[in-house]
Amino acid sequence: MHNLNSSWCRGIHEASTLKEGQENCFYLKKLMQSPAVFVIAEEPAVLDTLSDLFESAKLSCEIFTSTEAFLAKLDPEYPGCLLLDTSLPGISGSEFHSLLVQRKSILPVIILTRSNDARSAMEMLKGGALDFFEKPFDGGALLKAVRHAIEMDRANRHALRLRAEVLLRHAELTRREREIMNSMFDGKSSREIAAQLNMSARTVEFHRSRVKKKMGIATPVELVRMVATISGCHCIRKYSRGAVDVQP
User: Fold this and answer.
1) CATH assignment of 12-156, given 1.10.1200.10, 3.40.50.20, 3.40.50.2300, 3.40.50.12780?
2) Which residues are CB-neighbours of 68 under 8 A, at least 6 positions away?
3) What is the pLDDT of residue 232?
4) Which CATH architecture has domain 172-238?
5) In whole angstroms, what is the distance from residue 101 CA to residue 65 CA?
6) Residue 180: pLDDT band with limits 50, 70, 90
7) If you write DSSP's letter for every residue of 35-90 in order, what string do you get?
8) Of the listed ranges 40-44, 76-80, 95-99, the one predicted with least confidence
9) CA gap 227, 244 in Å, rounded
10) pLDDT digits (tens, 9 = 90+) for 139-168
């Protein structure tokens, strides 16, 4: 791991040196929640440039000089983005990106590449990488892309939390309530649902109220918005995790 003389470019590994106690637990929690730029590169000139860039922007970062070192420390819960130099020896950029997908990492990936390696960068973009820059890169443009990636990661994690909450609520529904909810999602009225399921409108209304309470919604429109929000998550599309399954 590259040793950077910057208070901002600190690694999450520092948390392991903390003493036990409530204050340290609070620090660890805050550290894990704070987004960081994870950099995989080894060229001294590139590392020095990135160190100065992120220090001036007050962005925390963690530097790895090999993909193996990064994978050994990878925790999908750590927020931020990944900056990958594809000129590193070892596995190719596309192979490494496939490993990230297998590890269920949702970190947005920005690629640094040589001008003669554009094909590899394009393959990674097709596989879900966010952006790429040829070396030597424009620091301002790269910083803008990094900030965008961090914001995308924040939005993705928010959407995944919502998805998990929706799935938990959905699991509490009975089979009949799931049938009612699916019809609500299709915009059907209580009378239409009653005719479809061969039950009284009053019974449908009872189940509708139960669905609203369990799902934490006031109207069917909120249900549609809820599913639309989590289905639009970039990382869900990227890894084909799909939207919420509301089938009985």
Assistant:
1) 3.40.50.2300
2) 90
3) 54
4) Orthogonal Bundle (1.10)
5) 20
6) very high
7) -EEEEE---HHHHHHHHHHHHHTT--EEEESSHHHHHHH--TT--EEEEEETTSSS
8) 95-99
9) 7
10) 999 999 999 999 999 988 888 888 888 888
Q: Looking at per-residue confidence, does 246 or 143 come out higher?
A: 143
Strand blocks (E) in the chain:
36-40, 61-64, 80-85, 109-113, 131-134
Q: What tokens appear for 68 in the block?
A: 């193996």
Spatial distance between the Cα atoms of 146 and 126, rounded to a whole number of angstroms: 19
- What are the two backbone dihedrals, phi and then psi, of residue 10, each rounded to the nearest 5 degrees? -110, 150
Mean pLDDT of the chain: 77
- What pLDDT, on the 0 to 100 scale, is given for residue 212? 92
Tokens of 1: 């791991």
Structure tokens at 208: 């509708």
